[in-house]
Amino acid sequence: MSMQLTPMLDYNSKGIRELVDKLLDSKTRESKIEKIYYFVRDEIKFGYNESDDIPASKTLKEGYGQCNTKSTLFMALLRAVRIPCRIHFFTIDKRVQKGIITGLHYKLTPDEIIHSWVEVWYKNKWINLEGIILDNQYLQCLKKKFDQPGYFEGYGVAVDNFNEVSTEWIGEDTYIQSKLIKNGYGVFDSPDEFYNKYGTNLRGIKKILFKHHIRKGMNRKVEEIRDECLHLDLKSRRR
């Protein structure tokens, strides 16, 4: 399994090197994976970057990301500490974003969009770690807002048993959007390899609109959900 440095997996960048030195004082592989997992899940908030194919260091600097950009950062941090990993690409139904993107913008979104998760070699098998996409604060806010059992899709989620879903690290697969996956591209040694072959979700005018307008509205919606959750907590404490 390659530990290759790539333009996207730029784990030699200053920010990533400093983070690794600060974060990973542990010796065991499990502890290293766990710390990296929780850092990417919770310290990198759920949100939409300007493009899927940005370097890991940029996602770290911006402090937020979605499935593809978080996966790139996750891989870069794992490679920085020599933990074997690879990235699995799929298409996913756009319904996973319903509620975050609405109206005409939702109609203009391709029916299937590029999606990925990172697979980590752990205890002699590949572990699928999709659960890093939503930070736990946002996930808990969604649970409070919708509070429903059974299947749930939209707002960055596609799972069975929504009220019971957990993305905690226990050394096994974690999922948060997998129920809307459509088609697989297979596994790749780096995200660069995939994007060089297939490109990103958007091109031309749609890419420009997303970068400068649409994603900002999507990020505002995510923050509205966080704010709504905060207000509910404050009301609850006053009772």
Characterise the protein shown here:
- This protein has 239 residues and is of the alpha+beta class.
- It has one domain (14-238): C8orf32 fold, CATH 3.10.620.
- It has helices at residues 14-23, 29-43, 56-62, 67-80, 103-108, 136-146, 191-198, 204-238, and strands at 45-46, 64-65, 85-93, 112-122, 125-129, 152-154, 157-159, 181-188.
- The strands form three sheets. The protein has a four-stranded antiparallel sheet. A two-stranded parallel ribbon has the order 1-2.
- α2 (29-43) runs antiparallel to α4 and α6 (136-146) packs across α8.
- The protein is globular, with a radius of gyration of 17 Å.
Query: What is the CATH class?
Result: Alpha Beta
Give, in order, the helices and strands: HHEHEHEHEEHEEEHH
Number of strands: 8
Low-confidence stretches: none
The CATH topology name reads C8orf32 fold
Q: How many individual domains?
A: 1
Q: Quickly give the CATH architecture.
A: Roll
β-strand amount? 15-25%
